[in-house]
Specification:
Blueprint (H helix, E strand, L loop, with lengths): L1 E4 L6 H9 L6 H15 L14 E4 L14 H42 L2 H9 L1 H44 L6
Antiparallel strand pairs: 1-2
Helix pairs in contact: 1-2, 3-5
């Protein structure tokens, strides 16, 4: 099996044309056969819009020979695999952090709502220390929710930058960080 790199084609026929350069008599049948072989080896090619440019494509031995210029080197394949793993890890970390922040924000907001209930206010009036501390506690809780939202925005920007660097790594380009 050999490998090629997906470059963002919008159709499977465009991909087949770039990879194999099939022409001449019977070219349509050969292109269809090549497309079928690629799909069998790469089910993700069914929806090219979900495939990231730079992704590795397995080219099975049942497909026509690749154009020499389209053959991915071992270094390209390794870089792409490392970049894909990095992307998956970044996405998982970001998702977990977002879930934790959402739970913390939900709990903090629920606390602020509970503090405003009449029953709680009655208890607060009966406890001077709580009455004195509660405004700061509520203020700090609201500040925490606000800080969590700011943190999410900052993390999103940083994540975009890191993902761009990972993509450059996959392409073998030096980043200017």
């Amino acid at each position: 099996m050999s490998f090629a790199i997906f470059k963002g084609e919008s159709s499977l026929q465009d991909l087949v044309s770039r990879l194999f350069g099939i022409s001449g008599a019977g070219s349509q049948a050969k292109s269809n056969q090549a497309a079928k072989a690629l799909l069998n080896a790469n089910p993700q090619l069914k929806d090219l819009s979900k495939l990231t440019p730079g992704s590795v494509i397995n080219v099975p031995s049942t497909a026509p020979p690749l154009k020499p210029s389209e053959q991915a080197t071992a270094l390209q394949v390794d870089r792409t695999a490392i970049a894909a793993q990095a992307q998956q890890t970044l996405d998982a970390i970001s998702q977990h952090l977002a879930e934790m922040e959402a739970r913390a924000s939900d709990s903090a907001n629920a606390f602020v709502v509970q503090v405003q209930l009449e029953q709680v206010q009655t208890l607060v009036e009966a406890a001077p220390q709580l009455k004195q501390a509660l405004p700061n506690l509520v203020s700090d809780t609201v500040s925490m929710v606000s800080a969590a939202k700011t943190s999410q925005a900052s993390r999103g920007q940083a994540l975009s930058s890191i993902k761009a660097s990972v993509l450059l790594f996959a392409k073998g380009v030096q980043s200017k960080a």
